[in-house]
Amino acid sequence: MNIHTLRIATRKSALALWQAEHVAALLRQAHPRLAVELLPMSTRGDQVLDQPLARIGGKGLFLKELEVAILERRADIAVHSLKDMPATLEPGFAIGAILPRADAADAFVSSRFARPGDLPEGARVGTSSLRRAAQLRALRPDLEIADLRGNVNTRLAKLDAGDYDAIILACAGLERLGLGERIRARMHAPDWLPAPGQAAIAIETREGNARVAELLRPLDDAETRRAVAAERAMNAALGGSCTVPVGAWCVVGERGLTLSGLVGDVDSGKVLRATAQAGLEASVALGREVAQRLFEQGAAAFLAPHAKS
To answer: Is 167 within 8 Å of 144 (Cβ atoms)?
Structure first.
């Protein structure tokens, strides 16, 4: 392969840069003659920190500027946390590779308390996620759930300053930044469900770019792709928005896939759950089946307030 350059669009946060550098290292390892450059960018999701994410448009706000860079040929790919990507991409884009998934659990982080059950009545817990808020409300209806925005270090600083009694973050993000010691308790599936695609790193490309697709092929993990395809299909069938309180977790076994999904209501703490199984090649059908089971339980009423977010 001739020497050429691949340019990676990425957000400027420490976690985003870690992920982009990780992808760059894997690409250089797979293609020793490939030059890889990073194009750090600031997105609207990074800039507007004084409003809840669901109110200003959801996690898709972290993608737009990066996608424009790809369309304008200033970048060849963009690296994202898959959970931040809409269930359905904009026309002209594709997911070229999904890396092996890390620990998908959420992390309970607190300076004084070891687990959610130890929090005193009325304790203030920070999260920007409606999914986390709904599950917290179901677990502990007495808690005060407060919005928490900013990058990982900013959120930890707010906790350490006493603004919150505890916060909920992703285990994978903390561990990638060398902050795993801040995790007091892991909130595991199936009791507590992560976001669709949580802990998976995705590489976005222009659809039909055969050269880039070939470069990315060695990085793609088939097992992770099957699992997250089911989770994202469920999310898409439920409305496809990053601003709805939806959780999903797919396990890949030798004989097939098992998908657990939930839809929650932040105000009441009511959570609907459904689980189904399918063959290894039936990810999308499985996701739609679990979504249908959730709709049969009344999920539409929970999703409607967020449908226009």
So the answer is: no
User: Which is higher by pLDDT, 234 or 255?
Assistant: 234
Determine contact, residues 213/101, Cβ cutoff 8 Å: no
The answer to whether 12 touches 40, Cβ cutoff 8 Å, is yes
Q: Which residues are catalytic?
A: 84
3-state secondary structure of 48: coil
What's the rounded Cα separation, in Å, for the pair 70 and 91?
13
Query: What are the tens digits of pLDDT across the range 84-135?
Result: 998 889 999 999 999 999 999 999 999 999 999 999 999 999 998 999 999 9
Q: What is the DSSP string of 169-218?
A: EEHHHHHHTT-GGG--EEE-TTTS---TTTT-EEEEEETT-HHHHHHHGG
Q: In Å, how far are 129, 232, 263, 272 from 246, measured between CA atoms?
A: 10, 10, 5, 10
In the block, residue with structure tokens 């973050």: 169
pLDDT confidence tier of residue 242, bands split at 50, 70 and 90: low
Backbone angles phi, psi at 304, to 5 degrees: -55, -45
CA distance 100 to 203: 12
Q: Counting beta carbons within 10 angstroms of the beta carbon of residue 145, is it exposed (0 to 12), middle (13 to 18) or buried (19 or more)?
A: buried
- Give the bridge partners for 98, in sequence order: 202
Residue 243 carries which DSSP code? T
For 45-66, write each residue's pLDDT tens digit.
Answer: 444 444 444 443 444 566 888 9
